[in-house]
C-alpha cells in the first residue's frame, strides 16, 4: 500500500525509494509507535507523506537549477511535464487540475482517504491534526472536486436518484 500511494504521488521511479525510506524511518523510530494502536498504517502513511513532501521540495529545487542552467522557466517546465503525464481525456485533465488547485493540506487528506484508504481517524493520526479538521478538509476537497467534475458527471445516476425520490 505504501508503494502504491508513493507511486501515485511521486511516480513509479521515486516510489521504491520512498517506500524503503518509510520502513527505515519506521524501524529507527519504532520506540515512538504506540503499541496500543491496532493499526500501524496511519503512522506509516504519516511517515511516507512527510518523505513525499521532502521529495517534492528536492525535485522543485533541482528543476529550478536545471531551468537556470538552460535559461528556461522552471515553473513552466514542471507544469508542462505534469500536463504531459496526464491522461489525454478531458475529464481526467479537469480532475487533475482540480486536485492541483486544492491546498496542500486538503490534497493530502483526499489522497490519504482515496488512495491509501485511511479512515478519518487514520488521516488525523497521519497528518497530526484533529479529526474535525480532517472532516473539514475532506468536505472542502470533495466540494471542489465535485464542482470540477460537473460537466463530466454521470447524469444517469442523478436521474435514477431523482426517480427514486419522486416515487418515495
Automatic annotation (TrEMBL):
Classification via InterPro entries: RNA_pol_sigma-70-like, RNA_pol_sigma-70_dom, RNA_pol_sigma70_r2, RNA_pol_sigma70_r4_t2, RNA_pol_sigma_r2, RNA_pol_sigma_r3/r4-like, WH-like_DNA-bd_sf
Disulfide bond found in the keyword field: no
GO biological process: DNA-templated transcription initiation
Domain RNA polymerase sigma factor 70 region 4 type as annotated: residue spans: 97-143
Transcription regulation in keyword set: yes
The entry's keywords: Sigma factor, Transcription, Transcription regulation
GO molecular function list: DNA binding; sigma factor activity
All copies of domain RNA polymerase sigma-70 region, residue ranges: 2-60
Alphabetical list of PANTHER family matching this protein: RNA POLYMERASE ECF-TYPE SIGMA FACTO, RNA POLYMERASE SIGMA FACTOR RFAY-RELATED
Family: Belongs to the sigma-70 factor family. ECF subfamily.
Cited NCBIfam families: sigma70-ECF
Listed name of the protein: RNA polymerase subunit sigma-70
Amino acid at each position: 500500500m505504501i508503494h502504491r500511494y508513493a507511486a501515485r504521488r511521486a511516480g513509479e521511479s521515486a516510489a521504491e525509494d520512498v517506500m524503503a525510506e518509510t520502513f527505515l524511518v519506521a524501524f529507527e523510530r519504532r520506540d515512538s509507535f504506540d503499541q496500543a494502536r491496532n493499526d500501524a498504517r496511519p503512522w506509516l502513511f504519516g511517515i511516507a507523506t512527510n518523505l513525499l513532501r521532502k521529495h517534492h521540495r528536492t525535485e522543485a529545487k533541482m528543476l529550478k537549477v536545471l531551468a537556470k542552467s538552460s535559461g528556461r522557466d522552471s515553473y513552466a517546465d514542471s507544469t508542462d511535464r505534469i500536463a504531459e503525464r496526464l491522461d489525454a481525456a478531458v475529464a481526467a485533465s479537469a480532475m487533475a487540475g482540480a486536485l492541483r488547485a486544492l491546498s496542500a493540506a486538503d490534497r493530502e487528506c483526499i489522497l490519504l482517504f482515496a488512495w491509501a484508504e485511511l479512515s478519518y481517524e487514520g488521516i488525523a493520526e497521519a497528518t497530526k491534526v484533529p479529526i474535525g479538521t480532517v472532516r473539514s478538509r475532506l468536505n472542502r476537497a470533495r466540494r471542489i472536486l465535485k464542482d470540477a467534475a460537473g460537466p463530466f458527471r454521470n447524469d444517469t445516476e442523478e436521474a435514477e436518484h431523482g426517480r427514486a425520490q419522486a416515487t418515495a
